[in-house]
Amino acid sequence: CIRDRPFSVEIDAAWDPPTVRVRKLDARVVDNRLSAEIDLRDGFGEGSLALTGSSSLSLYALLGLDLDVPDHPYQATATLVARGQQLEAKDIAVTVGSSDLRGHVRYTRGVKPVLAVDLQSDTLYLSHLLPSREEMEQEEAQRRSGGEVMDEREMFLELSREQRRQRVIPETELPVDWLNGLDGDLRYRVDDLVLRDDAHSRMSVHLVLVDGALSTEVFEWDGTYSDGRAELAIDAGASPPAFQLYINSKRLPLFWLMAGAQPQEGDRQARADYRVNLSGAGENLRELAASLDGVIIFEGGGRKMDNRGMDLFLGDILGEIVERI
Fold it and tell me: Which candidate, 260, 272, 278, places its Cα nearest to that of 226?
């Protein structure tokens, strides 16, 4: 929202039959700048667009997004083409901090629109998704120093409707109806996905959406601590919507990643194999969980980890479950 924020708009356009030529469009809101050059004629349009700014969080706020992500300078450019029912963004190039994105997007209007997306990132930083051990230790120290106590009388109070919705598995509606509104094909590849300085991975995803059925053609990753593949299928046209998930992963020592115990290359005791094959159906998360059927297999060797690390990792998880129950 640009309300109460300083902004300016400058346009230089001309009518050159049969073409409307926008030679310059320059719009600024705070430190976010949009510039474009566009030609429009007889159902055809072509032009270039550039978006720059010193704060990605400022841009997200303008778009109405409240995201808990790091703030970085950003820039984005693209070539826009419109022909009849087809809209296309070509030569997309986006950088946010040290992360990048490039590719193209094509949208075809019709009774059922078709969306085709083909994107690639050389580097994608997601280190903010994996908390550091130092952050976990600080949170644990603050919680203990705060002297948190529980009033046992609260255990016997009847839960309100709102509190029941906040259980471990809430009645959150599953937003899948939009899958019935279009067909699509999405391809995305990341050459270097950075979760931590010592945790890098490669990832490739190919999703296909046809007649309300979303499925993975490819979902693979290969990195420092984990490699594997997954298959996901969602049928939004079924009543209730049906879901299926398959995961086959190796070398995923999540406990050690979170608690700071790092296995060495070739350490077979640190090897762990995961296999998940689940299916279910439901209108909301609780219905889906109640209907789940399948197999979960974990196989891994033993290894030493200090109790403090286990407490840091499991304390928050078990605490959250106990509080919600």
Answer: 272
And the tokens for 224?
Answer: 């420092």
140/160 Cα distance (integer angstroms): 30
Coil, strand, or helix at residue 137? helix
3 state DSSP class of 70: coil
Nearest Cα residue to 224 out of 275, 276, 264, 274: 264
Pairing assessment for the beta strands 213-223 and 227-235 based on DSSP bridges: antiparallel
Tokens of 112: 């059922």
182-193: per-residue pLDDT in tens?
999 999 999 999
Report how far residue 159's alpha carbon sits from residue 76's, in angstroms, rounded to the nearest whole number: 49
60 φψ region: left (φ > 0), alpha (ψ -120 to 50), beta (else) = alpha
From residue 262, give the alpha-carbon distance in Å to each of 44, 198, 199, 249, 305.
57, 10, 10, 18, 10
Q: How far apart are CA 194 and CA 70, in angstroms?
A: 14
Place of tokens 């290969």: 222
Q: What are the distances in angstroms from CA 82 to CA 41, 75, 85?
A: 10, 23, 8
- For 239, residues 6+ apart whose C-beta sits below 8 A from its C-beta are none
Tens digit of each residue's pLDDT (9 = 90 or more) over 69-114: 999 999 999 999 999 899 999 999 999 999 999 999 999 999 999 9
